[in-house]
Structures are given as C-alpha cells and as structure tokens.
Design a protein that fits this description.
This protein has helices at 12-24, 29-42, 47-54, 58-71, 90-100, 116-125, 135-144, 163-176, 243-256, 276-284, 303-314, 322-338, 343-360, 369-372; strands spanning 181-191, 219-227, 232-238, 263-267, 287-291. It has 373 residues and is α/β, with parallel strands linked by helices.
Length: 373
C-alpha cells in the first residue's frame, strides 16, 4: 500500500511562518487556506481530513503538499497564467531573483540593499552574463516570484539539542497511535475589548466595532485540548496560566480515555507544563508528555485549529465581559466539534489504522506484541 501523502519535516522558519499566517489570518484567502493545509498535514492529519477542514478537493490538498515538498513556502503563492511570452529564460529569471535576494555587499557593491534602479544597472553589466530588463519589468518579475521590498526581521531557530529526537517522537506517535494522541496549548491574554475582524457587508458600508480606552476587566487565557483521533477541540478560559491550570487540562485529557491504556500529549516546553508535580502525575497515570523543541511550537497539531478559532469567534467581536466571551467561545467549540468532519472519513481511518496495527502486531504500548511477550 502506498504511503499517505504528507509534508516533509518543517524547518523552524517554515513552521513559524505557517503558524503566523494561520493565527493572524492577515493575508489573502489562497495563502491562508494553503498554510492551513500544510500545518494540518504537519500535525498528522490525513488528506481527507484536511480537505474537510479547508473545504477543498482532496487532489488540491495533495498538489499543495507535493509542491511544498518540492519548492517550500513558495507553494503558498498561486501561479497565475496568461500574458505574452516571457523574454527571459527560466535560468535568467532565476539568476535575477538570486541576485535580488543577495546582499549587494557580497557582490562587491558599496550598499546594503538594492533599489530597482541599482539592481537593473548591475544586471546589465554583471561579468559573464548580461541581462537587459527595464525597471518595471524587473519589479513585475520580482513580484511574480514572491520577492517584495520589506523590512528585515529577526528570527528564531531552535537550539534544542534534542530537536530531531523530539520531532521524531511526535511524528512516531501521530503515525502509530493517533487515536490516543492529544495536543495541549494556551493562547492569550484575552482582554475585553472590541476586536477587529472581517465580514460580508455592503460595498463602501463596512460593519464597524466601537473603540475602547478603559479596560477594567482584566485578562484570561484559553487552555485548549485537541484529540487527534476524534478531531475534537475543547478548552476553558482561566485567569492564570500556571502549572495548576496545566494539570487540570491534563486531567481532562486523561478522562477522555479512561481505559487506563497509555496516552500521548503533545505540548510545548513551557515551564508550567513540566513541573515535578505534573511529571509525577503523568507517570502514575500512564501519560507520556511529548514536548516540542524549543522555539518550535509549530510542531504542536493544535496550532492549525487555533487559527479558525480566532478568526470565527474572537475576531470581529465585542463581548461585554469575560462571562459572555467564554460562553460564546464554548458555543463555537460545540458547533465546531459537531461539524468537524464526515463520520465516514473518521470511521474509515480508524478501520485502516486498526488493520495496519494488527498486521504489524503492535499494541498500545508502542512495542511489537512479540517483543512484549
């Protein structure tokens, strides 16, 4: 049987960028939906589930995943066709893009960034290769290839010495025991204030939310739990984010599988997640804590589901207090779980996983039955 289509292991920069797009939603709909596809696939979701999540055809999801595996984040951008034949060859275009994204100082030029005029002049007289292109054509070429003029930003790369081992363990449990894998994370702080968003409205008559200057309600934090096998998301708003709240969330996850068999919980390595009390409880209750690497929270499967939660419940809202905010959030969670995906898809996946597990002789503990005897 062919291996299921899945994205390759994300780099730290790719994971953080996809997480940023899904959480903020501040981009066009094509990039947003494709980022959700990739992040959901990295979280262990199969193609039929992702197609239901983003309301797309399964072949479209597979094409996006294959293209990302080939060219990386450039797969987020649509490839528009049409227009007259290009005057530059693909090799020439690649050389122009490579030059534009290289610091001029590395090419012997006495400035730290290109302008369109300087770049066009350099391409006309570069040694061994002359490319004649106008400034407007050069600007269009760069825009078409996803190269834009923007501010430089700082970035983080995971320095965790166990990065590969942690990512490998997360991938292993997602592949072999999805029915017993859960994800946990928090986001916030959530204040009581009008929050801008988006909605359908008459042209030139946008829906408006009031401004606010006095915020006296304090903040809360959403503690979310996600079941991989059931595709169920639940959570609660709390005033604080500490070890006591994390332990309460873990207890609710353990209660979702009360049979006593091992379960696996993916979470980031926040100090409130790995205290001595939590580790002792996890060992006693057969809960394996699978921590994401440092600065790699994108590896947590719940991240792909926080984006829609923010966009469809918190954005474009004006809750009067935390009680109403929590009530509306729980209403959304109930609707989301009731409309998560088709039951036939879930049943087929469970049946297929049970068959594979039976053929390989693997039990819930993760070892082959022959070795466990």
């Amino acid at each position: 049987m062919a291996e299921p289509v899945r994205v390759r292991r994300l780099t730290d920069q790719e994971g953080q960028r996809l997480q940023q797009i899904v959480r903020r939603g501040s981009t066009n709909s094509v990039r947003y939906r494709r980022a959700m596809m990739l992040l959901a696939s990295a979280g262990g979701n199969r193609v039929p589930v992702i197609a239901q999540l983003v309301q797309a055809d399964e072949d479209t999801v597979r094409d996006v995943i294959h293209r990302f595996n080939q060219i990386g984040l450039a797969a987020l951008d649509p490839q528009w066709a049409g227009g007259r034949p290009r005057l530059l060859s693909p090799d020439d275009e690649e050389f122009v893009v490579q030059t534009a994204t290289t610091r001029p100082t590395k090419l012997g030029q006495p400035f730290t960034r290109w302008s369109i005029r300087k770049l066009a002049a350099y391409l006309r007289k570069v040694h061994g290769r002359v490319i004649r292109i106008g400034r407007e054509a050069l600007r269009c070429l760069l825009a078409r290839r996803g190269v834009t003029f923007q501010r430089t930003k700082t970035w983080k790369e995971s320095t965790d010495p166990q990065r590969d081992a942690k990512l490998g363990r997360i991938e292993h449990v997602l592949e072999h025991f999805p029915d017993r894998v859960f994800a946990f994370d928090e986001f916030g702080p959530l204040g009581i204030r009008p929050t801008a968003g988006s909605c359908w409205a008459a042209q030139n008559k946008p829906d408006r939310v009031p401004a606010t200057y006095h915020r006296t309600h304090g903040v809360t934090y959403f503690h979310g739990c996600y079941s991989i096998g059931d595709d169920t998301l639940w959570g609660v708003n709390r005033r604080h984010k500490g070890s006591a709240q994390s332990l309460a969330a873990l207890r609710s996850i353990r209660a979702a599988r009360p049979d006593g068999a091992p379960i696996y919980v993916i979470m980031d390595n926040l100090s409130a997640h790995k205290g001595a009390k939590i580790r002792a409880w996890a060992k006693k209750n057969r809960v394996e804590l699978c921590f994401t690497p440092t600065n790699a929270s994108w590896a947590n499967p719940i991240e792909a589901h926080f984006g829609p939660l923010r966009q469809f419940n918190l954005a474009n809202s004006n809750h009067p207090n935390h009680t109403v905010q929590t009530r509306e959030l729980h209403r959304y969670l109930r609707w989301r779980n009731a409309n998560a995906r088709h039951r036939d898809v879930l049943a087929a996946e469970r049946k297929e996983r049970a068959r594979i597990r039976s053929e390989k002789g693997i039990r819930w503990g993760g070892r082959p039955l022959a070795d466990a005897a």
